[in-house]
Specification:
Layout (H helix, E strand, L loop, with lengths): L1 H25 L1 E2 L1 H8 L3 H14 L4 E4 L4 E4 L12 H8 L29 H13 L3 E7 L3 E15 L4 E7 L4 E6 L3 E4 L13 H4 L1 E8 L5 H10 L7 E6 L3 H7 L13 E4 L6
Antiparallel strand pairs: 1-3, 2-3, 4-5, 4-8, 5-6, 6-7, 9-10, 9-11
């Protein structure tokens, strides 16, 4: 009986969350929306809408003419933090991991998704086993500077992702220090060997740094204000906390210091001692 009650409570909360999402993004919600998605009775749908009104007073108003609940302009969400990706997934049929329940079509959304750079499953598995068990592993690695097919022995201890590809943060026996090894450049990997403990801690991985960005000072005032709004800056800047080992990847994503196709870049990195 206890488990049944918990399931019912969970299902009820999910329906209330659904009401909030639909009302927030579409501006209207009615019993038919709930019945179509959850297969519940009209009475249960009415009860759910009433429960949400009690939970979030003033968020919805019933329109007698259209027989639907309309979201008010000053509505605030109380069950979740809304994100545009949620609306796109629910109502426009786009976005992995989100569902579509009504209206719209994928012709309203265009996604520019760069290809994910992947290693073979065998390589990914063996590198992960080596990381998980603290073992050394030999990989045939093709670097941009070192050519193809070079056998390297490493001991991975962490994984990083730069938005496009995975790399292993690992002790490199050849260089006697920590390096990043892109998984998609590993042609093959042997089964992990003996256990290994690095002689020193990977300080660049353990240490976190705070990056402070501001609009490019070379831009005119109107452009700077636009960039500040774009990034939601407070007091003319915004901050990101990252592992020091991931700093260069972060800066590359933010297009710093490179310019954008010959145009002035949008952001500056504020270095210690710089005036904001």
């Amino acid at each position: 009986m206890g488990n049944t009650n918990k399931r019912e409570q969970w299902a009820g909360r999910e329906r209330l969350l659904f009401i909030e999402r639909v009302a927030w993004w579409r501006g209207v919600v009615n019993r038919a929306d709930l019945r179509e998605v959850y297969g519940i009775s009209a009475a249960q749908a009415s009860a759910d809408l009433q429960s949400y009104q009690e939970l979030n007073a003033g968020a919805l108003a019933y329109n007698l003419k259209t027989k639907r609940y309309e979201a008010q302009a000053k509505m605030e969400c109380v069950l979740h933090d809304p994100r545009l990706e949620e609306a796109v997934g629910m109502f426009l049929g786009a976005g992995a991991g989100l569902w579509r329940v009504a209206g719209g079509g994928s012709e309203k959304v265009a996604l520019c998704v760069p290809p994910m750079r992947r290693a073979s499953l065998a390589v990914e598995r063996r590198v992960f086993v080596a990381l998980d068990q603290g073992r050394r592993i030999a990989v045939r690695y093709g670097s941009v500077s070192g050519g193809s097919g070079k056998l390297r022995e490493i001991a991975p201890h962490a994984l990083g992702h730069d938005g496009l590809r995975w790399h292993a943060r690992a002790w490199c026996f050849e260089n006697g220090g920590y390096r990043d090894f892109v998984l998609s450049r590993m042609e093959e990997a042997e089964w992990p060997g003996e256990e290994f403990s690095a002689p020193v801690v990977d300080e660049a991985w353990e240490r976190e740094v705070t990056l402070v960005f501001q609009a490019n000072r070379e831009l005119d005032e109107a452009a700077r204000k636009a960039i500040e709004r774009d990034y939601g800056m407070q007091n003319g800047c915004f901050k990101m906390q990252v592992r020091e080992a991931m700093k260069e990847y972060c800066l590359a994503q933010m297009r710093i210091p490179e310019s954008e196709g010959g145009r002035p870049r949008h952001l500056d990195l504020i270095l210690p001692g710089d005036a904001t």
